[in-house]
């Protein structure tokens, strides 16, 4: 029997985009760019690091902004409902140093994230990826471990896990991603997403 598991992106699915919130606070428009806009995540992070350094923004301000954030409306209720049906793992290209204040707001769901490198002055000195192509490799590992997989995401960096999953859904994606990946199913609200999860679990129950 193959037990089901759900792998979900974080920002744009359960949380607002962290860097857009930072952009609102600082007034730096280039920080609004996310993986919805740029498909090369390493390039995006280098741009962010350079921008923060040029504007004298350290980790303390980032953490302050993030501590004031809340989950998207309905996200915690959705997450609780999904976790009553199957295990849920959030796989994000964000960083543990940023996410710590948000864990209670998401019911301490299991999160796979990366790490930031912070210098002695509290500035962002770099970043360390958990793994290259961590989302895709996590999905491959789940399948190797005998799970039947479902994946949810909204951005270019989610594509590796979406294409490897047995069932995949884009959640409220931008038009650019829709146009580039027209074959991926789309869900635009939590009720629809939960219905797809229920269908996924029901198929698993029938086939096993």
Q: How does the SSE layout of this entry go?
A:
Elements: E1 4-8, H1 18-26, H2 41-54, H3 59-67, H4 75-83, E2 88-95, H5 96-99, E3 110-118, E4 124-128, H6 134-144, E5 148-153, H7 159-164, E6 167-171, H8 175-180, E7 186-187, H9 190-207
Structural description of this entry:
With about 210 residues, the protein is an alpha/beta fold. The protein has helices at about 20-25, 40-55, 60-65, 75-85, 95-100, 135-145, 160-165, 175-180, 190-205; strands spanning about 5-10, 90-95, 110-120, 125-130, 150-155, 165-170, 185. It has a 7-stranded mixed sheet with strand order 4-3-2-1-5-6-7, sandwiched between helices. Strand 3 (about 110-120) and strand 4 (about 125-130) form a beta hairpin. Helix 4 runs parallel beside helix 9 (about 190-205). The longest helix is centred in the last third of the chain and has 18 residues, at about 190-205.
């Amino acid at each position: 029997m193959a037990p089901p598991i759900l792998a979900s992106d974080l920002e744009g699915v359960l949380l607002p985009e962290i860097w857009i919130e930072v952009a609102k606070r600082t007034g730096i428009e280039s920080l609004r760019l996310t993986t919805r806009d740029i498909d090369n995540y390493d390039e995006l992070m280098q741009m962010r690091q350079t921008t923060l350094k040029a504007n004298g923004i350290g980790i303390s301000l980032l953490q302050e902004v993030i501590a004031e954030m809340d989950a998207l409306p309905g996200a915690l209720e959705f997450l609780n409902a999904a976790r009553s049906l199957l295990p849920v793992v959030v796989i994000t290209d964000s960083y543990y140093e940023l996410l710590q204040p948000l864990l209670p707001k998401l019911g301490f769901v299991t999160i796979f994230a990366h790490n930031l490198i912070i210098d002695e002055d509290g500035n962002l000195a770099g970043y360390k990826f958990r793994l290259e192509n961590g989302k895709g490799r996590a999905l491959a590992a789940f399948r190797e471990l005998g799970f039947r997989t479902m994946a949810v995401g909204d951005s270019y960096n989610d594509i590796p896990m979406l294409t490897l999953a047995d069932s995949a859904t884009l959640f409220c994606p931008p038009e650019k991603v829709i146009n580039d990946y027209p074959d991926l199913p789309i869900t635009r609200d939590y009720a629809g997403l939960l219905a797809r999860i229920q269908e996924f679990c029901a198929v698993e129950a029938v086939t096993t």
